[in-house]
Amino acid sequence: MLKTILVILPLACLVLVLMLILRNNSVPENLGVRKGRLAPLPTSPNAVSSQTDDTGRQVAPLPFIGDLRQTTEALLQAINNYPGRVQIVSRTRTYIHCVFSTARMRFKDDVEFSLDAGNKVVHFRSASRLGYSDMGLNRRRYDKLASLYLHRT
């Protein structure tokens, strides 16, 4: 019995670790803009959005800076000046999807910008791929990106 436990327990741990690695490296299927809206937030508190009714996880949309092209350029500048690991995964005329990685554990968070030219605002969504709590990281990321975007040089 003990031999069986000593074999099964490490295998179960290995499977769990492999599943976490796979999920951390898989882009969620629900990302993007559908009917003018970014994906709803997960039920876990590790995300923020400008398009949620949950006031505890709501952030303000960013105002346009000039026209669509100027706004896109300002967003890209803010993203590129963000301190930390970031990769732009996809970009269209009105949408940007980035993946931000934490320094130590390399946990990945998906950050999306939806440029609403009609209302001249940029909607924002940032969500962790793993875990339950992000200890405020996604909100701090929004605050830093908003500051870089609004106070660029």
Topology, element by element:
Elements (H helix, E strand, L loop, with lengths): L1 H23 L8 E2 L2 E2 L8 E3 L12 E2 L4 H14 L3 E8 L2 E7 L6 E9 L4 E8 L8 H14 L3
Antiparallel strand pairs: 1-2, 3-8, 4-8, 5-6, 6-7, 7-8
Explain what you see.
The structure is a single chain. This protein has 153 residues and is α+β, with helices and mostly antiparallel strands. Helix content is 33%, strand content 27%. The protein is built from 3 helices and 8 strands, in the order H-E-E-E-E-H-E-E-E-E-H. It has helices at residues 2-24, 68-81, 137-150; strands at residues 33-34, 37-38, 47-49, 62-63, 85-92, 95-101, 108-116, 121-128. The strands form 2 sheets. Strands 3, 4, 5, 6, 7 and 8 form a 6-stranded antiparallel β-sheet that branches. A two-stranded antiparallel ribbon has the order 1-2. A hairpin with a 2-residue loop joins strand 5 (85-92) and strand 6 (95-101). Helix 2 (68-81) crosses helix 3. The radius of gyration is 18 Å and the shape is elongated. The protein starts with a helix and ends with a helix. The model has no long low-confidence stretch (mean pLDDT 87).
Q: Let me know the number of strands.
A: 8
User: Which secondary-structure class do the elements indicate?
Assistant: alpha+beta
Overall morphology: elongated
Helix content: 25-40%
Rounded mean pLDDT is: 87
Number of helices: 3
Unreliable parts:
none
CA radius of gyration is: 18 Å
Sheet-strand content, in percent, reads 25-35%
Query: Order of SSEs, N→C?
Result: HEEEEHEEEEH
Largest sheet: 6 strands, antiparallel
What is the rounded distance between the termini? 67 Å
